[in-house]
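U., I forgot to send this yesterday:
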Amino acid sequence: MPDSITRTRTVAILGAGPVGLAAAAHVLERGLEPVVLEAGPTVGHAVRQWSHVQLFSPWDYNIDQAAGRLLAETGWNKPQPDHYPTGAELLEQYLEPLAMRTRLRDRIRTQSMVTSIGRAGFDKVKSKGREAAPFEIRYQNGRGPEVLRADAVIDATGTWFSPNPAGADGLPALGEREAQDRIAYGMPDVLGRDRARYAGRCVAVLGGGHSAIGTLIDLAKLKDEVPTTEIVWLLRSETPEKSFGGGAADQLAARGALGSAFAALVASGRITSATGFKASRITRDGDKLLVSAAGCPGRHVSVDELVVATGFRPDLDFLREIRLALDPALECPPALAPLIDPNLHSCGTVRPHGARELAQPETGFYFAGMKSYGRAPTFLMLTGYEQVRSIAAELAGDHEAAARVELVLPETGVCNGPAPSLSPDGTLAASGCCPAPAAALPVSGCGAPASPAKFATTPGAAAGPLAFLWSPATAWSIFLGIALVAATLGLAGIRFGAPEDVTGT
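Result:
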């Protein structure tokens, strides 16, 4: 049961994406006062950047329950639960009505970028009386600096606007900043608004997650329409099998279909692949970009455009005066790290969690949504909805509800351990969750030539867009993919890969 008296009244919510608006709905339903600060000009600003992408999960997974109850008061027509929305549909049919037609309307401030947060009258060092002081949130809205005071803060700003750089060491590759006009991050709309930039060009995509795969599949469609388009897949890992996903074992069917379709695409030879490619330097060579790999002198790729899809990281700069406890590797709440650490497992089976796991030393401050995952991937929007349900209950004094689990997450069907194998029918067979690692595939230095027609026989001797040597692991991925071609879904109509499953909001 809720405490009879709760001090928390005003809750500042940073970010008006799906999780931020869900937080506002839960806070309002609990009798507290939400104030939402959104840096962009409209709600769902990050979602608009990937509005062309179809989500892995159907509508039934993407509507928060408290938000749905608010919308129901307005006569809102709930979308078909088994339909897979695009980012644009998520905005038009859910986020915009939630922001403009419900009781949240007057509680959302757009074009309000938070610049710093602290405790009113207290620097980070001072402790006595700290918890009684309100939070002071400073933000810019185009009319000068503004200040909001609140009893609690939920940071749901996401990570979309702080992508990881191309450099394999976590730093920008040398020359990366100087080549920004030829580099895109995340998931450009290569079939829509960005088509002219990529059609008929040689495009490299760096990364092995869903954003990279979705972009590569779209580029293959573009190549069907403009055959002079060339596609290069650069993968840091020596073993690309994880990028093929869990296939039929994935409980999100669209996510499994994406990986299977991608495996078939790689096997078809329409995408040139390079494994073990750890980008270290980007230089201009006339009208081309040379992307060079570390550790192998002369190994590089010459392209017109580079798409960097290497994940995201949280922006923590404006939180310098907030007392935080973060995992040193993932930059997420420490209690959450063992559940999501990709070094330990990549299963989608993340135990539902809430206020207890997300709590910070700064009482009343919480991360929620994709930012709560820090640098880890595999975030699902449904996870964020459960987080903010629990946080709102805790802030309202209902500790029992805050501790209660009200969510079952779908599994990916793929974990660290043996690479996906082929079933007798030619489909991917996933192993159990996180078994012992499989034996490593053989890798020999910079690799050996896999195809004399496409690859140079000596480092630095360019042949086509590439000037490097394949590793045997790449050849293995093609062998695996060839067996999948007849069994997997065709590319027509496959455009899944929404960042809500890897970057969230």
